């Protein structure tokens, strides 16, 4: 009987040691989205090679992923950097998370309306209190991006009051393009083949360049939140760019909980090693070359400094025109005085500036 008991215990121990480690949960987004269908499977393949089994878990998007990782720091999540900048404070602050990777790819912000009198972001911002904003679902990354833009621009877009959420992005676009005083914002990869852009064209809508100095100077944790880009969308010409539009794009991030929030020395060590292993991966191992997203990114270019300045000036001019007459006179006088002072300085001072 003793021999049989010992044998049973030994067999049980072998069986337990053969059980693989629990799978790491990687929170993505909707099942049809690129997070879940493209990026996460590529990461899972790499982690399997490293002996770390993992699963892709669908979610409502970046905000939901932050909530899940805050609850369990061992989990991973994909998200937009602008949503991280907006929502991290709700879940313990930036220090509660660790960004494993950033900027392998970027998602772009599109502002759409059928009212062609709106040609730049500043014009939308100064009329925000009169416009109707129809957005994708409240929990979506697109709606969170709009919240972030309102937060950083309280005197412009922050004055928006007539805001509703549609059932999905496609519904938001269709509802917007049935109303001259409506605008929608949505975030996605700039795929010219996407049906949404065909819908915008068919319903006589147009994309307003989302480029503004307030937007471009945003940072979180030393990372730039938005980059001005030329994206390959079938659309009206801006600056003779052909079938491209200008807008800002935000980096995709992969994050997890801060290692010091993981309980147990062994689990904490494993977590830190996982972070290091993922950081060591090459970009092409996580963004499959044959994927539509990779092909799109190859055709998306950084906006030149000259073009970026042009669009920022358009937005700034729209904001200035909306200010009261006396305030504009005061600011104009300040500018004249400053120019006179600069002209009085030695040439080398001007060069340093």
Distance between the termini: 90 Å
Mean of the pLDDT scores?
Answer: 85
Q: Kindly estimate the percentage of residues that lie in beta strands according to DSSP.
A: 15-25%
Percent helix among the residues?
40-55%
Low-confidence segments, given as residue ranges, are 1-21, 235-242, 345-353
Strand elements, count: 13
Number of helices: 15
Give the CA-based shape.
globular
Largest sheet: 11 strands, mixed
Rg, alpha carbons: 25 Å
Structure commentary:
This protein is an alpha/beta fold. 44% of the residues lie in helices and 20% in strands. It has helices at residues 2-18, 34-49, 62-71, 81-87, 121-126, 141-152, 169-176, 195-202, 213-216, 265-279, 283-286, 292-298, 305-321, 325-344, 347-352, and strands at residues 24-27, 54-57, 76-80, 97-113, 132-135, 162-165, 182-188, 206-208, 219-220, 223-224, 227-231, 245-257, 301-302. Strands 1, 2, 3, 4, 5, 6, 7, 8, 11, 12 and 13 form an eleven-stranded mixed sheet that branches. Strand 9 and strand 10 (223-224) form a beta hairpin. The longest helix is centred in the last third of the chain and has 20 residues, at 325-344. The termini are far apart.
